[in-house]
Specification:
- The protein has 18 helices and 18 strands.
- The chain is of the alpha/beta class and 499 residues long.
- The radius of gyration is 27 Å and the shape is elongated.
Length: 499
């Protein structure tokens, strides 16, 4: 239940009280107005709005009120609001407070309001829509919900990114750790796998980000709670137990199946999870650390391809919030790391080994030690003339990692990869950028190199054919496109896949 408390009910406060989404029949919303104007109290009660006639500046009045989620301080007088704000912040330190400055505020008043309130509304911007934007917008409610969820955590929080995290996941985890610690909850930004992409390593090292690299054998007993960022299900693209209880999920990817979690915020309209986390920092009234702000802006830029791919107004809003705190010199260093020789070799193999049908190119690069070279190879293939969709994959131990890119308007790569590979592994992503990983257990039982190469050859053909078939059987695909559905194509699933 969301509980809103209005202290003082002047012109702006009255309109807020009348338009807040609370009525007696909605057990999810609760509203209480406290004002010393008996006429206003009677009028509000006539409109079925709960109101109490009392002095909003008297600390005894709010002493016995249940803890609200949101407080709006809304008298017309600056001195009344300043006093009510001070008592409200002292009585309810974790509540989100929006305070109307009033019409006669001095610079000292403004400083006091800025210090005590999460959002300050002044006389020039006191339109009801603006006030409600800080009180009743879905993202404001989400910030309230996140604050309440964090308050239930008694010990340490593990903020878990997806495996081999990208800048968006890294930045989002660091931001959630900052928020948790601001409200008194100790937290660690955790990941499984490696950070092998040179730009990602540069980001972590240059910004001095404090991350914990977990292994599957590590005990998780030291953590009281778990949060997932930039992915939404335990055991899917992370190495957590599938049955793990999840306390918080924050993501921007469309979910594939039910999402567990006590608090879940999935904003599919946002171009990056870093955008969502920036909104939380803003809603919590937190000034981002320079390292966090730089990481978040970089995460947004990478996931939106410098604001050209799946971008939304909220991404631009987040960038404008972050920009004053960003270390631009470090950002430049992150964006211009040295390209490793192995990455160049992987790109070369992708170009040499590509199989192209129409505007779709698929390439196996064989064995790789750095899986982050795959998306760079997929991007490079996409820059070739006549190519609009690419898939590059490589083998590492008993796993196959796939990276896909597209600039074709009629291709949804996330759905395409899920259709092609969900039965034998895990896949997902966006319309123009997606990935998958498949476990080929039969490789572990091969005794000779010739046998390994034979298995790899079969797997390469299976992956290539499945991708082309998924592309050519998508809705709206041209009639007569290449398809192949043979039983032998799927026999690998029973032999050694991870269906």
């Amino acid at each position: 239940m969301l509980f809103r408390l209005v202290l003082g009910c002047g012109t702006v406060g009255r309109q807020v009280a009348e338009q807040c989404p609370e009525r007696d029949g909605d057990d999810r919303e609760r509203l209480l107005v406290v004002t010393d104007d008996e006429t206003v109290v009677e009028a509000l009660r006539d409109e079925s709005i709960p109101a109490r006639c009392a002095d909003p500046t008297d600390p005894s009045v709010i002493a016995n009120i249940d803890t609200p989620d949101v407080i709006f301080v809304g008298s017309d007088r600056t001195d009344v609001n300043r006093t009510a704000l001070g008592h409200a912040r002292e009585r309810f330190p974790r509540a989100s407070i929006v305070a109307y400055l009033g019409g006669n505020a001095t610079p000292a008043d403004r400083a006091t309001f800025d210090e005590l309130a999460d959002h300050v509304v002044d006389a020039e911007t006191a339109m009801v829509e603006h006030v409600l934007d800080g009180v009743a917008r879905p993202s404001a409610d989400a910030a309230i919900g996140l604050r309440k969820q964090l308050a239930t955590i008694n010990d340490r929080l593990a903020v878990v990114m997806h495996d081999n995290p990208d800048p968006d996941a890294i930045a989002s985890a660091v931001a959630l750790v900052d928020i948790a610690e601001e409200v008194g909850v100790g937290a660690d930004a955790c990941y499984f796998g490696d950070i092998s992409h040179q730009e990602n390593r540069a980001m972590v090292n240059l910004l001095g980000l404090d991350l914990r690299n977990l292994s599957p054998t590590d005990s998780l007993e030291e953590y009281d709670a778990f949060a997932l960022v930039d992915h939404s299900r335990p055991g899917v693209n992370d190495q957590l137990p599938e049955e793990l209880h999840v306390d918080i999920v924050i993501d921007h990817h469309p979910p594939r199946g039910p999402v567990p979690g006590d608090f879940v915020d999935l904003r599919e309209h946002a171009g990056a999870t870093s955008t969502v986390m920036t909104d939380y920092l803003d809603r919590f009234g937190l000034e981002p650390r320079r390292a966090t702000a730089t990481a978040l802006l970089y995460g947004i830029r990478i996931d939106t391809n410098d604001f050209t791919r799946e971008v939304s107004p909220s991404d631009f809003d987040a960038a404008s919030i972050l920009w004053p705190y960003v270390d631009t010199s470090v950002m430049s260093q992150i964006e211009q790391p040295t390209v490793e020789g192995e990455t160049l070799e992987t790109i070369a193999r992708a170009i040499k080994n590509r199989i192209q049908r129409g505007s779709v190119a698929v390439a196996s690069v064989g064995r790789v030690s750095n899986r982050d070279a795959l998306p760079q190879a997929a991007d490079q293939l996409l820059s070739m003339e006549g190519v609009e969709t690419t898939l590059v994959f490589g083998f590492r131990e008993q796993m196959v990692f796939l990276s896909a890119r597209s600039r074709a308007g009629d291709v949804d790569l996330g759905e395409t990869l899920r259709d092609a590979f969900d039965r034998i592994g895990s896949a997902g992503g966006h319309a123009d950028m997606a990935g998958a990983q498949l476990e080929i257990g039969i490789l572990g039982s091969a005794d000779h190199e010739d046998e390994v190469e034979s298995i790899v050859s079969v797997v390469e053909e299976v992956i290539t054919n499945r991708f082309f078939e998924a592309i050519d059987t998508r809705p709206g695909a041209p009639v007569g496109a290449y398809t192949q559905t043979s039983e032998w194509l799927f026999s690998l699933d029973q032999d050694g896949g991870s269906a």
